[in-house]
Design a protein that fits this description.
Layout: H1 2-20, E1 37-41, E2 45-46, H2 56-66, E3 70-72, H3 90-95, E4 100-102, E5 105-106
Parallel strand pairs: 1-3, 1-4, 2-5
């Protein structure tokens, strides 16, 4: 009987602690391909009034890098910061030996309540 009481107490304590505990899961690939694809993710243009709370281009770049398939060019190494195709000078990206280029704009969405 005493062992059953200890077991129930332990079980209830574990259940309470499990409800309180939080964890963040980050999966990082430690090995990738031998020759990862070179990619430049240019900081996205923001068309809103207030600033963004997240740096979306950094998130995209980090996700690509963590996949093990890509090596991303740092923002400080970029020769230009285009936000649309008409602003891209391809010679700049060829000089930097980038195989792919990601550019974009972010606009505030409309909420349909």
């Amino acid at each position: 009987m005493k062992a059953a009481t200890k077991f129930i107490t332990l079980l209830m304590t574990s259940a309470l602690l499990a409800g309180v505990a939080q964890a963040q899961l980050t999966i990082e690939i430690t090995e990738g391909v031998d020759n990862p694809t070179k990619i430049a993710v240019v900081p996205f243009a923001w068309n809103g009034v207030a600033g963004l709370s997240e740096d979306v281009s950094s998130i995209v770049s980090a996700d690509l890098r963590r996949s093990g398939q890509f090596v991303a060019l740092g923002k400080g190494d970029m020769l230009g910061l285009p936000s649309e195709q008409s602003q891209v000078f391809y010679r700049d990206w060829r000089v930097l030996e980038q195989e792919y280029l990601v550019v974009g704009k972010i606009s505030p969405g409309q909420h349909n309540d």
